[in-house]
Design brief:
Elements (H helix, E strand, L loop, with lengths): L2 H6 L6 H10 L7 H15 L2 H11 L5 H27 L2 H5 L8 H4 L4 H15 L2 H13 L4 H26 L8
């Protein structure tokens, strides 16, 4: 299924998501690799099989194989790190921050793509996963590397819409809408 075919099945109550994604795919703040890597990493983090399969298939025509693997790597490592660092943040016990993580994170250095793009994808996944510590850390790295707040927010907008679509399709799998698609 293509992305347009998937969007054609969005129920009327979620029409805003469909319209937002169409607009966000045309935004000028991000380049094609940044857009599609964000989409891929966000779809992985959002975990809906329909959205994931559709976005990954479409992303493969916009990303190099290496960039697609890097987007998967960003989603994977942040899936782990977001739990670990969110725990540290939520626990409020300062001792946890002094203890070594003892978690392998080699993909942060070995992804083989533009480091700014990888950081952007890590930020988007961290926003989906709700890890304030990771959002703050990766957002700061992006700004230090010269990325504008507008571009960072553009990626987070994409992540939010992909997550919203995943929520819609999860809902529709359990409680199908009685209305016509938007």
């Amino acid at each position: 299924m293509t992305l347009n075919e998937l969007l054609d099945t969005v129920p009327a109550y979620a029409k805003d998501l469909k319209l937002n994604l169409s607009t966000l795919l045309q935004q000028q703040e991000l380049n094609e690799q940044q857009i599609w890597g964000t989409m891929a990493a966000s779809a992985i983090a959002s975990r809906n099989p329909q959205v994931l399969q559709t976005v990954l298939a479409e992303a493969a025509s916009h990303l190099s194989p290496q960039a697609l693997e890097a987007a998967k790597g960003a989603a994977a490592v942040m899936g782990m790190n977001n739990i670990y660092y969110r725990f540290q943040y939520l626990a409020k016990n300062p001792k946890y921050a002094t203890l070594p993580a003892r978690l392998r994170m080699n993909v942060l250095r070995t992804h083989g793509i533009d480091p700014v793009d990888f950081e952007l994808w890590c930020t988007a996944v961290s926003a989906i996963n709700g890890c304030g510590a990771c959002v703050d850390s990766h957002e700061q790295v992006l700004r230090n590397k010269g990325m504008s707040e507008e571009s960072i927010l553009a990626a987070v907008r994409l992540a939010s819409v992909i997550h919203g679509l995943a929520t819609v399709f999860d809902t529709e799998a359990v409680a199908p809408s009685q209305t016509v698609p938007a």
